[in-house]
Amino acid sequence: MAWNKKRKLFGKNAYYSISKKLRREGKSSEEFELMLNGLSLEDVIALKLELATRPFGGKAFGIPIWYSMREIAQDAVLKMALSTTRSKKEAARFLGLIPQDFRKLMKKYKTESFFEEKD
Length: 119
Known about the structure:
mainly alpha
């Protein structure tokens, strides 16, 4: 018997989708996502950093990239967990976090406001 994915039928997380949010803002498209899917995570991060520093001649003056990577990765994984689960409780379990730590991270990274629609 094949495994069937549960559909998101309830909970606020049903409206959290990074892909849909970026498409609404015109920052992504189906074609872009297909191309991006062909790259490894390491390639995507390296490319993004290269593009971000290109206007400055490849330098990122004053930005401690190495020491910021942990927080950047945690923010990204938190957003992904919310967009792929049906509830915050399920997202916390997915990440292996206790609810108190999950709430602290949500507040620290302002994750819910990322998914809110801006007029």
